[in-house]
Design brief:
- The chain is mainly alpha-helical.
- The protein is about 65% helix and about 5% strand.
- It has eight helices and two strands.
- It has a two-stranded antiparallel sheet.
- The chain starts with 13 loop residues before the first helix and ends with a helix.
Length: about 240
């Protein structure tokens, strides 16, 4: 990759650079959502892919430096299968418990902390155009978001904030927690308080990134988790 001079506006500090690019992306998404809602998803996807590449080229890095590589694909797929087997049954149990409690909660509280506006009634069904959702969640949502947040942002913040404590075989420091927080805050481009709950799966995505060195396993888990929620929502709120 040809080394290009870093633009003057790009901060020299790894932390400041990461936060600046996150702020640019977040601001662009909010402005687009306010002025042209239909284009907000496209702007997010382009920003998540282009901004890290822009910074990457200035330092002569390549995609593998941000975890986008097939080098450890087998290891990433194994971890994806293991994490899915552990987390998804727990999540389904938690979801079902939430559906049982939902009718008992005050409506005002339900509207603030959940996206649901009607009483749940289970009948298994897939969302309409489910095959399209699979492609969308993997290639438009999960891979771009993981490339930006876990690939670029978490890596650059780790450059500025090395160290941390070992958790399940992986050293996790300030960069890990701040990335998960920024990921959650980024979902407030559409201001709904319940969207902050993505902080918790973000911890799993970040841990998978550090465990394997790649983002593809985390992206597969990310997309699968989103699709699982869509199936459950379609089945309970068809």
């Amino acid at each position: 990759m040809t080394l290009e001079p870093a633009p003057a506006w790009l901060p020299k500090s790894a932390v400041r650079e990461a936060l600046a690019l996150w702020a640019i992306c977040f601001t662009a998404i909010i402005l687009t959502f306010v002025t042209w809602t239909g284009a907000a998803k496209l702007v997010a996807t382009v920003g998540f892919l282009y901004l890290p590449i822009y910074a990457m080229r200035a330092r002569g890095e390549d995609y593998a430096d941000f975890g986008l590589s097939l080098r450890n694909l087998g290891r990433e797929l194994k971890l994806f299968a293991l994490v899915s087997a552990v987390v998804f049954p727990l999540f389904i149990g938690f979801y079902l418990g939430g559906m049982a409690l939902l009718p008992l909660l005050p409506k005002a509280l339900v509207h603030v902390f959940t996206p649901y506006v009607s009483a749940p009634s289970f009948h298994f069904r897939l969302p309409d155009r489910f095959a399209e959702w699979v492609i969308d969640q993997l290639f438009v949502v999960a891979i771009p978001e993981e490339f930006f947040y876990r690939g670029y942002l978490q890596s650059r913040l780790r450059d500025g904030w090395p160290g941390g404590r070992v958790v399940f075989g992986v050293r996790l420091g300030r960069a890990f927690w701040i990335t998960a927080l920024l990921f959650a805050l980024g979902h407030l481009a559409i201001f709904q308080a319940w969207r902050l709950a993505v902080f918790f799966p973000a911890l799993i995505f970040g841990w998978m990134r550090e465990r394997t060195g790649g983002i593809l396993g985390a992206a597969l888990f990310h997309a699968s988790a989103n699709l699982l929620v869509q199936v459950l929502d379609a089945s309970f709120f068809s």
